[in-house]
Amino acid sequence: MTTCGCRVSPGPCSVSTCWKTTGAWWEIPGLDKDDFKIEVVDDALVVSGEKRFERDSSDGRWRTIQCAYGAFRRVVPLPAPVRADQAKASYRNGVLRVELPKVEPGPVRSVTIDVQ
How far is CA 60 from its chain centroid? Predict the structure, then answer.
């Protein structure tokens, strides 16, 4: 969705994982934390939102109107199962950061199969 010739496109996503958490970071400047919708759907992290920006200024005989409107949606496959109910997100200085704790592995289960 584009108006005034402007596009909203979050930059590339950086994903890292360690033994306890998976993290994802985007550079998405110019938004407010309330502009984001973050979900875990199946085995993917879905980040969507909308940018709404207008500025109208006058300087003598010149009038300048700047605007940028647009929606975005990014789907990032998760490398391991996560606990979506314990996820945390923050947005500071144009960087959206999402941390997702991994599901702890259960005990190894062994089953003996008889050969017939």
Answer: 42
Residue 42 lies in a domain: yes
| 54 domain-assigned | yes
The pLDDT tens digits of the residues spanning 78-100 come to 988 999 999 999 999 989 999 99
SS (H, E, C) 87-114: CEEEEECCEEEEEEEECCCCCCCCCCCC
Tokens describing residue 49: 């939102």
Q: Which residues of the chain have pLDDT under 70?
A: 1-11
Q: Which helix (H) or strand (E) holds 24?
A: strand 21-27
Residue at 77 is within a domain: yes
Strands lying side by side in the sheet with 95-101: 14-17, 21-27, 95-101, 88-92
- The tokens for 46 are 């879905």
Selection from 18, 24, 35 nearest residue 76 by Cα: 24
Nearest of 78, 75, 71, 65 to residue 50 by alpha carbon:
71
